[in-house]
Design brief:
heterodimer, A: mainly alpha, 15 helices, 61% helix, 0% strand, B: alpha/beta
Amino acid sequence: MNESVSESPQPLLHLSTPPHIRQSESVHTIMLSVLIALIPAFVASVVFFGMRALVLTLVCTAAAVGTEALLCILFRKQLSTSDLSAVVTGLLFAFTLPPHLPFWMGAAGSVFAIAVVKMAFGGLGNNLINPALAARAFLMVSFPAAMTSFTAPAHGTMFGLSRALDGVTEATPLVYFKNALATGNFHPLDLQDTIGSLLVGNVGGSLGATSGLAILLGAIFLLYKGIIRFRTPFFFIGSVFLLSWIFNGTGDVFSTEAFIVPLYQGLGGGVMLGAFFLAADPVTSPMTPWGRILFGIGCGVITFLIRRYGGYADGVCWAILLMNFCVPILDRYCRPRRYGERKKRE
Amino acid sequence: MFRSLGFRGGIHPPRYKNPTADSPIEVLPPPAKVIIPVLQHAGPSASILVKRGDRVRLGQLIAEPSSPDSAAVHSSVSGVVLSVANFPHPLGAHVLAAEIENDGQDLAVETAGVDTPWKEAAPQEIVRKIFSCGVVGMGGTGVPAQVNLLPPANNPVDTVIVDCTGCEPFSVADSCLVKEHTDEILTGALIVRKILGAKRAIVVADSSAADVASSLSDACKDEKFRDLSVAVVKPKYPQSDEKILVRTLTKREIPSGGNPADAGCTVHSAATVLAIVRSVLSGTPLYQRTLTAGGPCVSTPKNLLVRLGTPVRNVLEFCGTDLQRAKKVVMGGPMRGSAQAELDAPVIKTTYGVFAFDTLVPGVRNYNCIGCGRCTRACPMRLSPAYLMRFVDKNNMVDAQQWGVEDCIECGSCAYVCPAKINLVHFMKLGKYRVKNAAASRAAPGAAA
């Protein structure tokens, strides 16, 4: 029996280095989970800003995926759209835009995000900064007026087509806050009633960033699945809270007013979306535990500084972009102590 | 009953253990022909003593150790040497081996244990016996046993660790050995403890194999084993790696580039200890071992007692493997084993498992690294595999070395969790190779140029 070896030829065996078993989770499933986590915010945006939000989101996503596919074909690379990262980028980019932005601007931003920020550096994983935020920054400096006129949410109707399309603009909570602080006409108790709206999302703002609850729902799903880790968002939001509480503008740290300000600052603007979906983007955030903590704190501090002293009402986008550039150096200096690492000799 | 001990990092692979966990060890009939390589351990090859046409007996020395850190090789059958030539080796290359035709009679050479009872014998005498029987680390390291039993005098060993957890998530042969040979293995632990003059000896079991832990602790109630203690670790790979075990059990760390003796410990797998006790008590050379045969292509996974030199084909056929369906055959375990190109590669002293897979996992990079940090979290050595991969890929060996590429234990946890399916272990191996080469070329600049 043992001698009859070659009666049926053995199919060629494959060789590889170990391990020979792998976890089923892949880049594709991670991106899919992020998409699932974005559903609540997406639904909220359609509810509050109407069909226009839906169409703008679709335009941005389609432009992102189309650009990636086109570039892959042009440069004869393997088509990489199936990893869904372009969908995530397009969607997140749309979520940072004012709902009433002209469609062509949204599409131009998506093309910029994919072509210049992502693919020019080598595609997924090689981009230094978050493509969605870089594209938003690109639009901010190119079309400042269009990027800062925010549509008021539609009340009453499920798909408030008419009002949203009319483009009734409204000062976002942060613009209101900034103006109040600048004019000295600042009464934190006035903000109290807005907190509820900030949680639900029926306030003016970027189309996917207004609803704190919807974003939180998606974030909890991602945290549960282990796709984002708590460190970056926790220290980001935490430092925004802490700074806005200590420097709350009323001069008193333990009054009721003093506690309204951090809630307002944390829920208003892009902090929630930024912390859970943009700062926690794996490609452009640190890998080391301490790096993630410092990254989060850095984002929070810069956000606070821009909001309070900078030229923009919201600084989340700039804060994350600035910290993106610090990632390599953060990881280098936050390298964990290895097992059995010897002390450095003089 | 026990408090299970854990460690930071690591992974929880699926428990393929179950199909074979409770099956007793079966004996694989000795094959018609064995191929016995002179290199079955980590260290210099043994020097071959037989030539074509020689008649050898079971357990006869066919290759003698060429240096103190080499190991003896014995025949696993009785019969005639057909040839001495290069044959496929489980680790890839072709290695000098003796091809022996089995006459089926198993005529054994006379053996005897240590002359005096082991409790009175001198440690050197016992170690000499173990050395002559060719015992090596059978949990996969292949380090000849005498190397770990004779540590330098300035590094006294106070803790002997006997690992009964099985080296890998799929491989359960060691747990079966423990259940079937509890007394022998515990005696072996005492012998090792005596040789090293160690204060304590710890027998480690896995909390997922409760029967192993309880049979060990029951046995330790016996008066003669009262010097042993039983520890239970959480079922988490790679809990049985020697560096991880030392850290888990003693809170000490083996310094980078050192061996367990630097932390006052020595780690032996259950299979090694069984080989040690048999060589000491009866002088039985190491010519057979137990292994787990399994994997998706294997219809009846088994724990087998296999003669060394048995071609892997015989092992797989005995377990009803559909070899036409097999795409990958692995010797060792699925996390650390080496994929085989030829089914004629023989079972050697370090082969703790044989697995056949009908599916392929990517062997090269699939996606780009997305920097998720899962590898950093999974690494039990607290390295940053993703960064090491980038450094090695760009041939930045200064950073690679500074970030500890040489400390990698190649457990495969990082590659297992990687969502981009990057073969990180490949980059770690490449990095170590390049660091070694760079050091060699620095030492001899003329030779490198």
